[in-house]
Amino acid sequence: MSFIxxxxxxxxxxxxxxxxxxxxFIAGGxxxxxxxxxxxxxxxxxxxxxxxxxxxxxxxxxxxxxxxxSEVGIIRRNLMQAGYYGTHALQEYLATRNTLxxxxxxxxxxxxxxxxxxxxxxxxxxxxxxxxxALGYGFPRLLLSIQANARVERIQSGLPDALDxxxxxxxxxxxxxxALKRVSExxxxxxxxxxxxxxxxxxxxxxxxxxxxxxxxxxRIDTPDINALATLVSQTQRMGSHIATAVCDYxxxxxxxxxxxxxxxxxxxxxxxxxxxxxCLAPPIxxxxxxxxxxxxxxxxxxxxxxxxxxxxxxxGLAASRDRDGGVPRALR
Length: 333
Hints:
Blueprint: H1 3-37, H2 56-62, H3 69-81, H4 89-114, H5 121-171, H6 176-186, H7 192-207, H8 210-221, H9 224-239, H10 243-272, H11 274-304, H12 316-324
């Protein structure tokens, strides 16, 4: 296999991947457009179908690469934080990642076998293949973490406004479950993540209790604000207090905590900017301030050590001539 053939195969593979990604992006955009247009306004479309089953290939690929149970637990939690509540979400994620890893290994071995062994191409293919395997294993995990953190941030940022709407519903006389249903219908276009979580809480409360539903919500999102909200509502219901006042006060406390976190981040920014200032801005300033003085000092030293300079070296012959001439150098007579 010549180098031209290798480049052609690589270009074809890259082009195929780009076409697949563009097609998948267009298909995802169409789904979102249909959902926003009203064809699937119900939030149940985002929940898992009870009768959905995974195929044999997905099950086989999910267990192809060994995985620690602790890592599996972290992946399951990140999947829930990212909004993947499907029954087989973990198996589909593991199958996708393992497919990338095994595909990269197989492709590397095939290309290294077909390459000319008398050249450096097999070694290059193996090195590139090792990088591709590492990316296939780590990139899905990184992408999942980014999606989970972004979704949790969206839920935290929209939680105070949602709690204000819940407070108005509770003040108007609606029970908490009906308030959650009303809020999930009102904000499903502005903050679909919170709407989905409120719908899950309402359904869970219909099957169990509101306290357990909120505890499950706190376990899924796993943030201090959500944990405090679940504890607050549970204690308020157990003590028989008015829940609207408690939720309103908690919404204000969440806003204050978010503002304090923003101020803390802004205060840390000045300390973080100190190192770029020292290593990037200080050297040019020192060069501008001290550069001319250093150059003048160099010129002075060079001229002073020349014959007739103020720092002219004391040569024995020159000292003797100074003694004969009365201490006056010949150059100055």
